[in-house]
Amino acid sequence: MMRALWCVAALALLLTGCSDAPGALTVAMKDMHFRQGEVHVRAGQQVTLRVVNEDGYAHAFDIDAFAIHRPLVAHETAEIIFTPEAAGQYTFYCGSPGHVAAGMTGLLIVEE
What we know:
There is one protein chain. A hairpin with a 2-residue loop joins strand 1 and strand 2 (33-34). By secondary structure, the chain is mainly β. The chain is built from one helix and nine strands. Helices cover 13% and strands 44% of the residues. The longest helix is centred in the first third of the chain and has 15 residues, at 2-16. The chain has one domain (21-111): Immunoglobulin-like (Sandwich), CATH 2.60.40.420.
């Protein structure tokens, strides 16, 4: 019984190392839309966005207000780290041609 308990504890420790960065927020792209249409963060705190392109074709992740312009090839995952200083609402979008017109936009809400 004690041996089984130790095995479970060891497995839990190993799996902890496999998780995303602490506090990372995932924004996934699929079928010409963002699965998370709104993302809420705090002003003055570092943000880690894990951007996942679930499609078999290229997308991009853009937030003009923070000079973020990151292309993603098919099935790529990117980590974007930035610190929004001012509260407000900022549009994120896919900058690939025609994707905004297809509705590939979302809202980053920075709260005090």
